[in-house]
Amino acid sequence: MLGLLAFAVQAEDGHDLWMRYVPIDAANAAASRSHATELVAADATPVQSAARAELARGLGGLLGVAPAMSDTVTRDGAVVVGTRASSRVIARLRLDTRQLGAEGYLIRSVRVDGHAATVIAANEDIGALYGAFHFLRLLQTGQSLENLDLREAPRVKLRVLNHWDNLDGHVERGYAGASIWDWHKLPDWRDPRYTDYARANASLGINGTVLNNVNSNALSLTPMYLEKTAALADVFRPYGIRVYLSARFSAPIEIGGLETADPLDPAVRRWWKDKADEIYRTIPDFGGFLVKANSEGQPGPQDYGRTHADGANMLADALAPHGGTVMWRAFVYSHEEPDDRAKQAYTEFVPHDGRFRGNVLVQVKNGAIDFQPREPFHPLFGAMPKTPLMMEFQITKEYLGFATHLVYLGPLYEEALKADTRVRGPGSTVAKVIDGSLHGDTLPKSRTTGMAGVANIGADRNWSGSHFDQANWYVFGRMAWNPESSARAIADEWVRMTFSNDAAFVGPVVEMMMGSREAAVDYMTPLGLHHLMGRGHHYGPGPWVEGGPRADWTSVYYHRASRDGIGFDRSATGSNAVAQYAPAVADEFGDVERVPEEFLLWFHHVPWDHRTASGRPLWDELVHRYTRGVDYVKKMRGTWQGLESRVDAERHAQVASFLGIQEKEAQWWRDASIAYFQTFSGRPLPEGEAPPAHSLEYYESLQFPYAPGDGK
Amino acid sequence: MLGLLAFAVQAEDGHDLWMRYVPIDAANAAASRSHATELVAADATPVQSAARAELARGLGGLLGVAPAMSDTVTRDGAVVVGTRASSRVIARLRLDTRQLGAEGYLIRSVRVDGHAATVIAANEDIGALYGAFHFLRLLQTGQSLENLDLREAPRVKLRVLNHWDNLDGHVERGYAGASIWDWHKLPDWRDPRYTDYARANASLGINGTVLNNVNSNALSLTPMYLEKTAALADVFRPYGIRVYLSARFSAPIEIGGLETADPLDPAVRRWWKDKADEIYRTIPDFGGFLVKANSEGQPGPQDYGRTHADGANMLADALAPHGGTVMWRAFVYSHEEPDDRAKQAYTEFVPHDGRFRGNVLVQVKNGAIDFQPREPFHPLFGAMPKTPLMMEFQITKEYLGFATHLVYLGPLYEEALKADTRVRGPGSTVAKVIDGSLHGDTLPKSRTTGMAGVANIGADRNWSGSHFDQANWYVFGRMAWNPESSARAIADEWVRMTFSNDAAFVGPVVEMMMGSREAAVDYMTPLGLHHLMGRGHHYGPGPWVEGGPRADWTSVYYHRASRDGIGFDRSATGSNAVAQYAPAVADEFGDVERVPEEFLLWFHHVPWDHRTASGRPLWDELVHRYTRGVDYVKKMRGTWQGLESRVDAERHAQVASFLGIQEKEAQWWRDASIAYFQTFSGRPLPEGEAPPAHSLEYYESLQFPYAPGDGK
């Protein structure tokens, strides 16, 4: 029997994400079982069924015994799940759910008919499902089920993944294999992984997904593809997830047979209205459109002399009767515009503040360039008090080592959300812009709020290309629910659910994760440097990249290294991008003595002998940081090696292999960058620093025509 | 405990292929366990370790208890595995292994030191590994381990998969997801699935794999990619699998900096010689090159006025010092050549018979067009008595319904291999051409033999895109080992290993599979019709396809339908392609009264009222067969539905869904084809035949720009 069991054990290949539901420690199991003896949960609706099935599966796995199903509380340890409408038990408890909204829940230890019970209550079914996942999470993270009294409600309304997935299965900036959407076999074949995808998202509170690339194809809006999209919507609906589509602005021409896509043209407006009507006939709870317009070659309203507001409002008007939302991206910069690229979105959008319809969200990347390892917060945050701004984070690591580098993005998200815009004095954080609380008085009353994450999900067995990249999907979801969450607390939670509650494992791994993003900044783009990666594919270092179709797609545009120094002068003596921030922030960023050192070269052009906070001259400090980044990766490898006995062999081996790749590539980044910048600094390496392993010519000669994720 | 077990059970997602090793019936288990009490197997070499590990894993899974490891036979029921060199027990048994060659094995019930034992003996380690898989197969298929006396040796030397995988991960004509080769993370990350791939192939006796597309990219031959290929070779080596690469003929220009790729140019010859030396320094057991030259736009020796023999021999000379082989494809037809495409390979290659080096195999597709649902055997078979010809089958179902149609290719392979070329009288089968026995007296002494299959493998969880497509990988491997195998026996074996030994399941499923290919012929291309699929992607019907870059890429070129009839006249009154066959065959194929009806329209242009064997006029017979094909799919759906209780829910659901798609698409093929051909026949549908569901314009209007596998 033992032999058989050994062979039946589930492989730890990462496919189950943070929902592994493996047996909890024997020490805790008995106590926990006494709090999950029976399950009182309706299944009259698909969402109710999802909650009940998840609890049965989760409790069965975690506690080794599935709870009995019951219509009412018959013994101590019952778990009662539902809403006033779905559960007579809950209706009788007269719980105060007024602050929970449609998606919130409470979990409370109560007595029902003389029995100890735990109630998971909400105003709507979806809240109860979220509560069920929270209840399971308590068990998964080794917490007690005694004396519970928890209340949760999301701070942001639209918590959305953006899939940059093409119809041919290629994922732009995807490092986890092909798209999980098997368009060819849809709508007939509904792969079970679609359900697992929905479960994983619901477990985090993600409630929307944009299925197709922002660089979009109008065919996604044709009947054949809408039928396929509808099949996915059917699968996701029980998990509270609405589907959205990226809409190609020129679709009226490409699939509508019109000669223009001018947003003020009545025929165009009619086409979009009819298209919206058609979509909602197929998908009654369709979420809306995401649009990338007049950006990097995409069509848009400016092709017709119209504004972004004109374009967004036309789509908003088409969607409004159905309750749909337009997510209009602010990631725009012009080919023709000679001004600092970092300034252009602000320049373009601020004048339109207040001119967008109530069902438009302007979607703004965390920084003004493009998902770099570190950027200061985008100056649009706080600058459009009459317009709801939606955060766009990148979960896929386009600029942070693809799938093989262990880089936990929690600290990056936290840094961006906690950044203080100062527009209404200290404490005017980006988080408060996003959740609408900072400008509650000036925003439209009908406003919504949102946070988007560019997904790192693909057909790879472990979904995200690496085990640790699952944490980035996880932390995005948790921070979208509550933008003031702690990256460290979420890492702790994720490690426990994904790997183990063993304190000797959790502690070192959380430490490793928490420093990993700073390490990537160090070995790629220290001290405020940015946009130094290889051309096109963005794999590896390319500080020498110059020429080509546009200056602001090169590295030399951003680092501006020369004999006299390095860095982009965005102070008043330069592009004056600092002026786009609130005065208190502008003063700080604009002053080379006061600017936080991590943004030094973002805002200033500084001589090589500039004295840094450490006392080292700039060149020495730069080299020091490159080396520090590599050393951190070496330290992570050592830490991970020492944890071999505390984790399954399969996942340990892959993580160890990837850390080996990361170390090689971190060294490559350091060496190539130093070799290149030294041609400008003309200075020797500081004492004790190893010279680059190869010549600069060697690094410049490397070609990677098939690096994954390239945006062909 | 029961609860826990229930949750730990392995999902039946098809990933384990025919190597599931789940417990055998309790009824047989006791008897079988008594024949596998201990395992006496060396592990001094990687191949020995692979055999030992496979037996431990397989026996542990199948019997519920892993056998004890022992250095010698200590009890009844020992299993002794190895060679004279690796096993003293086997050396002492003095078995006659003379006929087994390097890869064969015997399995025999013997007594050793007074104990009953089973010996798996071979001349080389790899034979013992193959024997180990055979031994496991006995258990998997419900056979007894009593009184065994088996001998097996492969009839064909090179049993090779051809992966049409591009470096960017796209698989040309692949319907199972992206390529399994993660080139970007190689050589560092050796995905465990590479080992599973090798195990699966070794279990069938497949001993070679061409990693990259025949439409090849010269970069595969650069040091960066050779290092990656070497890592895969390392993983495959313990399983007796050698790696090959498709070589782009113009590589000396593209990556060598030469101005020509002329095979008679000394600098070009030197470049290939140096390249071969470089490859063998990296991969000492490299298998050789596969080449598609002067075919469908690929470069080749004719670009320089040289012959295919000149090109092949240059590469052969480069590989010869290292023992490598050139597999040179005969799939050629010229853009400029107005002659019947079916004739061109023969015309091109026969004059060169005897001019190829001893380490060249000419690789010939089973038919003269291109892997159609049915083709007569290729006239090259038997026509080159001095040249070893290698069979090329397609495993991936480019023309047979992609991944969703249940079409078992065993009968197609068997039909091709059993076809009688008559070149040396009756019994001159294609199988005997392939295994070298037909022309043993005229072939070069140093000859090798081979069979290639274009792989249907991708990153999909079940490897092949559908559960039943695994059977096509399986039957290819088994037929490559023995080209005279029975497709039915192999189907029976595969069903037992993959699903169940339950007779009430095996019988109906084998029946279903055995008729499935004929059904596809019926609903796609009955009565010898061919090449009628959609343009480019080859998805769905396209009998109306005409125009475009070349006539022989259209459908009208092949069906030649008009008011007066339908079919391609390849008799003496037409292209006279029949004359390329031996006279006895040519007489039969060339005579409209004697030609087998399944090839009627392949060889003859026939009036619509031509009387067929059934007594029906041709038009009625055509419609009858289209409908019969659809009806067979309906019957398969019914059969499968009735088997729901006899198979796991997960695989049952996917097969059921795919059969639903197949029925829809079979109906589509029938309806579109009938709607189209009726415009020529001008005849009514026979009594009782339903009219097409849509108009011909509707079918012609359908567009599938993102159908998978397109050869971009």
Taken as a percent bin, the fraction of beta residues of chain A is 5-15%
Shape of chain A: globular
Total helical segments of chain A: 22
Write the CATH homologous superfamily of the largest domain in chain A. Answer: Glycosidases
CATH topology of the largest domain in chain A: TIM Barrel
**What does the oligomeric state look like here?**
homodimer
- The largest beta-sheet of chain A arranges its strands as 7-8-9-10-11-12-13-14
Radius of gyration over C-alpha positions of chain A, nearest whole angstrom: 26 Å
Mean pLDDT across the residues of chain A is 96
Q: Characterize the largest beta sheet of chain A: strand count, sense, and whether it forms a barrel.
A: 8 strands, parallel, barrel
Q: Report the CATH C-level class of the largest domain in chain A.
A: Alpha Beta
Greatest interface: A-B, 47 and 47 residues
What structural class do the secondary elements of chain A suggest? alpha/beta
N-to-C terminal Cα separation of chain A, in Å?
53 Å
* Total count of domains of chain A: 3
CATH architecture call of the largest domain in chain A: Alpha-Beta Barrel
> Which stretches of chain A are low in confidence, meaning pLDDT under 50 for 5 or more residues running?
1-9
Number of strands of chain A: 14
